Amino acid sequence: MTKLAIAFAMAGLLLPTGFAAAAELAPGSGESVRLGRVNGAVYYTVEQDGYRVVATIAEGDAGVPVRFVATLGEGQALTISVPGNIDEAPQLFEFSRANGRLFVDQTPKADEPMSISPVLVSE
User: Fold this and answer.
1) What global pTM score does this model have?
2) Which of 52, 88, 98, 104 has the fewest other C-beta atoms within 10 Å?
3) Does residue 39 form part of some domain?
């Protein structure tokens, strides 16, 4: 089983914690994210040139995973857009760095819960 598959399996075993605003992430600790039909894991490390954010997402259990990597300086943000149907607005994952902290904010559909939960992640 790949490390990614293990991360997704662990994420599925954890009870999600709903939130209504941006949630703060701790350096080096992995978090699972869910937004509608897209699931994934995110973590960041503190590097010399900024916070290295790694987000891996996939649609459902069988979707092909896609990894996003960005190094954020103070005041910078990374947005991952998840398209919906033609008549729907896209759903967003936004990672932002402010005051030496990293936050993740998700914009779900009105009828779908969003969640973030701890998960074991290793490179």
Assistant:
1) 0.68
2) 88
3) yes
